[in-house]
Design a protein that fits this description.
The chain is mainly alpha-helical. It has ten helices and three strands.
């Protein structure tokens, strides 16, 4: 169950525009941060009508009535009364057992809620999306879906990292299954985001079309997510192939190796076994083997194999060090990716605020 933010309107202020109006300062306290929004009374009336339209029923609370004979800018008592009424309105919607109004995009857009408070709502509103591929019809919901997509890809990468570090076959299998589950979800979400972006570009659902720059940015986000998903899928397949190869090598036990060496030794002895009347049959002689008998050649071969085994051990240690360095680099890249993701979310949030500010400036001008 998602924890709802604490909402309050502790204070008001008056705008400095030629035609002043009262600004209500809404404070939201989330688990990780607290921020303040500034709204005017007309924003609340727009929210109320939009909630009624999107939820199919009026909210369980009513807005304080509009006064036609006095103004909140000239009457502090009226401003305080309206502040209390608007605060009760928001708190009633926020704590009501029926979350149909909180599940609307109008509620999240009005309060500028992050995706952590709307992921479960999106699953309820667009749960059949992966099955019916219905396009997303709201730009804010689209961005929240993209944040959830990045979370799925990040979880898949973490599961693959755990799989690479797991020591048992059972743990590796569980991590692979979890990574595959996240990648499947990410694939369906990419399809939904692409369909939703096409609908938003064409204005199919009666909404204002997005600008060309914003469309290009969102297409780049989908393309980057698709490439990342394909890369993670290829990485998982490579790990599975490596695991199969390691399993095949593991079957070559020490006993099998000893038997192979013994068989090779018998063949070498047979090839060098003296023939009656002809002495020892020599193969391709070298300066090191020319003066040795059969037993000496066998001992030389065993010494060379021991030296080769030592060289292989040194090489294995070097590879292990390289693997450790690679894993440390990967962990650092994951941290940097998380930081970039946080920066991306901040940029999206600021962009949303700038869009709202442009609309207000347009209305004022």
């Amino acid at each position: 169950m998602t924890t709802q933010p604490e909402i309050g309107i502790p204070s008001t202020s008056t705008s400095t525009t030629p035609k002043p109006y009262t600004i209500y300062h809404i404070t939201l306290r989330l688990p990780l941060r607290t921020f303040t929004l500034q709204k005017r009374y007309s924003d609340f009336t727009t929210l109320h009508s939009t909630l009624t339209s999107q939820a199919g029923a009026p909210p369980p609370a009513s807005l304080p009535p509009k006064s036609y004979f006095s103004s909140t800018t000239s009457s502090p008592a009226l401003a305080e009364s309206r502040r209390i009424g608007l605060q009760n309105y928001l708190q009633t919607l926020n704590t009501d057992p029926n979350d149909r109004w909180r599940n609307t995009s109008a509620w999240r857009s009005f309060l500028n809620l992050p995706s952590s408070n709307s992921n479960s709502n999106h699953a309820n509103r667009h749960g059949p999306l992966s099955r019916t591929q219905q396009p997303i019809t709201d730009p804010v919901v689209w961005l929240d879906y993209h944040r959830n997509l990045k979370s799925q890809l990040h979880s898949a990468r973490l599961q693959l990292t755990k799989r690479d570090q797991a020591s048992s076959a059972q743990a590796q299998h569980e991590c692979s299954a979890e990574a595959k589950k996240h990648l499947i979800k990410a694939s369906s979400m990419i399809t939904a985001l692409d369909s939703g972006l096409k609908a938003l570009a064409n204005g199919t659902w009666g909404r204002e079309k997005l600008g060309d720059g914003e469309m290009r940015r969102r297409r780049d986000l989908i393309s980057a997510a698709q490439k990342e998903r394909e890369g993670l899928e290829n990485l998982g397949n490579a790990m599975a192939a490596k695991n199969a190869l390691d399993g095949a090598i593991a079957h070559a036990t020490k006993g099998d190796k000893d038997k192979l060496l013994a068989a090779n030794g018998d063949e070498n002895n047979a090839s060098r076994r003296p023939v009656a009347g002809k002495g020892r049959v020599l193969g391709k002689e070298t300066d090191r083997t020319r003066a040795l008998d059969n037993q000496g050649v066998l001992q030389l071969q065993q010494q060379l194999m021991r030296e080769q085994d030592e060289d292989v051990d040194v090489l294995a240690q070097a590879v292990a060090r390289q693997k450790k360095i690679g894993m440390e680099i990967q962990e650092e890249l994951i941290v940097q990716k998380d930081l970039l993701g946080l920066l991306d979310e901040d940029v999206d949030r600021v962009q949303g605020k700038m869009d709202v500010a442009r609309k207000r400036i347009g209305k004022i001008s």
